[in-house]
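Listing S7. Sequence submitted for prediction.
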Amino acid sequence: MSAGADEGGPFDAFLRREATAGLALPPGRLSATEAVLHLHRAANAVRQHVEQEVLRPRQLTWTGFVVLRTVWAARRIETRHVAEQAGISKATLTGVVDTLSGRGLVKRTIHPDDGRLVVLQLTRGGHRLLRELLPESQHAEAYALSFLEPAELSRITAALRGLVDHLERRGRGGPALSDG
């Protein structure tokens, strides 16, 4: 084992570090913290799997793929909405769109009613690439989750959808969590 390796895995290392720093979690918060850490690791593992198996051979990043899918789903969409839906900053989107546009996959146009806004749409090449990528990415995603029984997959999907809905409601003025 190399120096600094975690004998119990990343979560156990996290707990040891918190305890050493005097930041132990209050009762009842441990399972939520563990769940969020595993959620993060799982999302990264799926992302890396799809990137490795599907995107990298086509010199495409995960973020580029997300932007392409977002534009494809909307047909024509303002850049600010793409950034919001993709979960990236407008500055990051600018670099991604520069790359995708340079490869002939997306086209920028000025909004017809407001010259300050930019609208994106896929080119024919972008449509062609997505028609190839979507079935392959769906296959890679299905493989990543193939260890789950269908009922487990349904429960996890519902729970994740519920998590997002819960947090989005709070972001729209829903109640804050109490410390009690």
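Caption to Listing S7: primary sequence and predicted structure tokens for the chain studied. The longest strand covers residues 106-110. Confidence is low (pLDDT under 50) at residues 1-6.
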